[in-house]
Amino acid sequence: MPRISAASNAAQRAETQHRILTAFGELLFTHGLPGLTMTDVARHARIGRTAVYNYYADIEELLIAYALDETERFLVDLRESLDSLENPVDRLALYVRAQVEDLSRRHLPPGPAMGAVLSPASFAKLADHVGELSVLLQGILRDGVAQGFLPEADITQLAQLIHGTLSSSAARGDGAGEDAEAEARLARTVQFVQLGAGARFGDDGRPVRLTPREPAVPGGS
User: Fold this and answer.
1) 3-state DSSP call for residue 221?
2) Structure confidence at residue 120 (pLDDT)
3) What is the mean pLDDT of residues 111-139?
4) Residue 169 phi/psi, 5° resolution?
5) Residue 201: beta bridge partners?
6) Is 200 helix (H, G, I), strand (E, B) or coil?
7) Cα→Cα distances 206→133, 153, 209, Å
8) 3-state secondary structure of 208
9) Mind listing the pLDDT tens digit for each residue in 162-195?
10) In 10 A of CB 157, how many CB atoms?
11) Closest alpha carbon to 191 in 93, 64, 69
12) How far apart are CA 54 and CA 35, in angstroms?
């Protein structure tokens, strides 16, 4: 019988872990977190319950692993999409759209609910990771101010307000579905956030600078 190589073993472990996380995510979507057990996850993933415990000690550990995996994947895709845009107001629109759609799709418990089921250490770990989203948004807002497309503001507070708006929009289902009405709701959310941040638009619908930028002085520092 041929030996199983280290690479094959690692690939098998990664595949099993992926099946567990996928099953957990699907159960979160269909049934929610309350009452969800490791046995439910194992049955849905079509693997033994012991195998699930080989990767995660309990539902709390599985929940934090799923949330971190989803957030990291979302961040990678979002950064790649944002890099294709130059105007900070357009980047803000993309960020808002992506966030609402992702929050609606994943159906993770909201922050307070997560805090109720996670230990303080686990909740802090998740908060640190999700904090990367806030850093990304704050960077977009700072670019908007620096380039004259957004007015001066308390960037940290503005980012918090925007995230609160996005969470509420996702909870109401503004980003869910593919029908025209859902798209219209999402478009209104995007515009609401842009205008709330102070962005203004020309007759062609493109973002405009709030004040013309002064030309550089030749030979100036």
Assistant:
1) coil
2) 78
3) 75
4) -65, -45
5) 207
6) strand
7) 25, 22, 10
8) strand
9) 988 887 766 544 444 457 787 888 899 999 999 9
10) 9
11) 93
12) 21
**201: DSSP letter:** E
Nearest alpha carbon to residue 93 among 82, 104, 103: 82
Identity (one letter) of the amino acid at 49?
R
- pTM over 0.85, yes/no: no
Position 214: which residue type? E
State how far the Cα of 96 lies from the Cα of 21, in Å rounded to an integer: 26
**Do 190 and 95 contact (CB within 8 A), yes or no?**
no
Residues 6 or more apart whose CB falls under 8 angstroms from that of 8 comprise none
Residue 82: CA count within 13 A, CB half-sphere: 24
Cα(205)–Cα(30) distance, rounded to whole angstroms? 40
β-pair type (207-208, 200-201): antiparallel
Three-state DSSP class for residue 44? helix
